[in-house]
Design brief:
heterodimer, A: mainly alpha, two-stranded antiparallel sheet, 75% helix, 3% strand, B: alpha/beta, 6-stranded mixed β-sheet, elongated, binds adenosine-5'-diphosphate, binds magnesium ion
């Protein structure tokens, strides 16, 4: 526990000190929220049969984009860089148990994502008059479910990246299209049929749907077990791939 | 007490046999040099002993445990300098030491380690602003911060300028005088000779010779006598230099000749090493 707390502090320091990475994973979803919020915050958007305010719709979408950017993309890029620069190998050579190390890395990701979500919710309320979430327990569960599933997918995708230089290219090529297709920026109602078919497979689609239900409509998260199952299954697949193929050592040496 | 025991260690990468039956022992408090050209199998050997790589055959004991299955308590007793440097660019020297010190049950004080590796002036400088040699010294500091009994150094001074190399040598001598056991790999012969109590020369996955540097020269080397006769260079190698030289000079005097350019010298460890490791090119 002492080791976990030590490593959690280390991870936080490392995250905030790397300004470029902190900007892309932490600040960018907030920046996008401000930009798109000022574009269509006040218009109404079709969500299925319902019509909702743009700002509220976008707020939940940006929380979905945030999970993809912190837990999936940010985590994966950080771990690939650490692996290829030999830091994971060095850590492996110390008495710090690998499980404690990885838990602290994930714990730190959850902290970053939680701060980001709170900021998005506060900004949404203050700037765009989006109402406060009414089901706090479900909000917490939502964050934990998302962080666990997307972090597992983040660990999994590190195994597909071969070099530190390639890490942002590969990860961005996966997560940016995923964020757009899943409808975190715009309502996918107007997307062509094949994109909607793809969207129906992606975990972020279901996470974003849960985020809208919980944060916009005040539903408890367990009201949609189907969506939870989709997100959890993707997380389980990610975890299985990570357990089978995660490496601590760089490609050479 | 033995710190490390290796018997008939074997390791292949695909069809390539990198280690073909390596055996040696290292006593507690001993500095042991593993010397050999690139590709000889030094890193493979060391990383098996550190628990990073799996062996294909043979037995290995490091501080009484098999590194392939040893846990945290065992790791707390060893310090590792890997062949390539690996640090967080955004953390300072002191921060690195407190981050990694935090992983060990009884870490050495950060400033003590900083002094030991001579980074006092760089204490609060971030790693990305350090030179390669300074980063390498921090690597060494990180291997020492847990106050280990046994230290692995894989080519700790490769790429250093002569002054930095001397400084690193003196740090390693300090560690030796603290009673630490050290396994050091190098392809610099003078480094092995200067620092090690015993040296093993590794070539193509086999140990070709092992012993104290002085012993190695004494055991295998012959004395070389060179002179010129009618302008032609004559080279004699002998293990009985006194007798051969006496005969040679007596004969020359009797014939009223001079032994032009006469030289008598022992083979150096360097020549021995070159002879041992050059054999591979001739094969
Ligand atoms: N991970 C690896 N995969 C394949 N071959 C390797 C690997 N590591 C080392 N080798 C090969 O094994 C031999 C010994 O390498 P190494 O132990 O690194 O030697 P040294 O450290 O003495 O230079 C070399 O021929 C090298 O190419
Ligand atoms: Mg090597």
């Amino acid at each position: 526990m002492k080791l976990f707390a030590h490593e959690l502090r280390v991870e936080q320091k490392l995250f905030w000190r790397n300004r470029e990475a902190a900007f892309f994973t932490f600040a960018l979803p907030i920046v996008f929220f401000l930009i798109f919020g000022s574009v269509y915050g006040d218009s109404t958007i079709k969500e299925g049969a319902r019509r909702v305010r743009g700002a509220a719709y976008l707020e939940a979408g940006m929380i979905g984009y945030g999970i993809a950017s912190t837990a999936f993309a940010g985590l994966a890029i950080t771990l690939v860089i650490r692996r290829e620069s030999g830091i994971l190998k060095r850590v492996r050579g110390t008495p710090l148990p690998p499980a404690v190390y990885l838990s602290a890395v994930l714990g730190s990701t959850v902290i970053v994502f939680a701060i980001q979500t709170v900021l998005i919710i506060v900004l949404g309320h203050v700037l765009y008059d989006v109402r406060w979430p009414t089901v706090p327990l479900s909000v917490v569960l939502l964050l934990l479910l998302g962080a666990a599933a997307f972090a597992a997918l983040g660990l999994a995708i590190t195994t597909a990246v071969r070099s530190a230089e390639g890490s942002s290219a590969v990860v961005n090529a996966v997560y940016l299209p995923m964020a757009i297709i899943s409808g975190t920026f715009f309502s996918p109602t107007s997307y062509p049929h094949f994109l909607r078919v793809v969207a129906d497979l992606l975990p972020l689609t279901y996470f974003t749907k849960l985020a809208r239900d919980v944060i916009l409509h005040g539903k408890e998260i367990w009201a949609d077990p189907g969506a939870i199952t989709w997100v959890a299954c993707w997380g389980a697949i990610g975890l299985a791939v990570a357990i089978a193929r995660f490496r601590w050592e760089p490609r050479e040496g | 007490m033995t710190a490390i025991r290796v018997e008939d260690l074997r390791k292949s990468y695909g069809a390539h046999e990198a280690l073909r039956g390596v055996s040696f022992e290292i006593g507690e408090g001993e500095v042991f040099g593993l010397l050999g050209p690139n590709g000889a199998g030094k890193t493979t050997t060391v990383e098996i002993l550190e628990g990073y790589r799996r062996r294909d055959g043979g037995t290995v004991q490091v501080l009484g445990a098999d590194p392939a299955s040893a846990g945290s308590r065992w790791r707390a007793q060893i310090g590792i300098v890997l062949q390539s440097s690996s640090l967080y660019p955004n953390l300072t020297v002191a921060e690195h030491l407190s981050v990694f010190g935090g992983y060990y049950p009884k870490p050495r004080p950060v400033d003590e380690v900083i002094d030991l590796v001579g980074l006092g002036e760089k204490r609060d400088v971030r790693v990305k602003s350090l030179s390669g040699g300074q980063q390498r010294r921090l690597d060494l500091g990180l291997a020492l911060v847990g106050d280990p009994e046994l230290i692995f150094l894989d080519e700790p001074t490769t790429g250093f300028d002569p002054a930095a190399r001397r400084a690193a040598w003196s740090t390693i001598r300090d560690l030796r005088s603290l009673g630490k056991t050290i396994l050091l790999t190098t392809h610099y012969l003078d480094e092995a000779e200067q620092l090690s109590d015993r040296v093993a020369v590794l070539r193509e996955g086999r140990i070709v010779t092992i012993g104290a540097p002085a012993e190695l020269i004494g055991a295998t080397s012959e004395t070389e006598i060179r002179y010129r006769r009618d302008g032609e260079l004559v080279v004699l190698r002998t293990s009985e230099p006194t007798r051969v030289l006496h005969e040679l000079t007596a004969q020359a005097l009797a014939e009223g000749r001079d032994l032009e350019g006469l030289e008598v010298r022992r083979q150096t460890l360097e020549e021995l090493y070159l002879a041992l490791t050059a054999a591979e090119q001739e094969q």
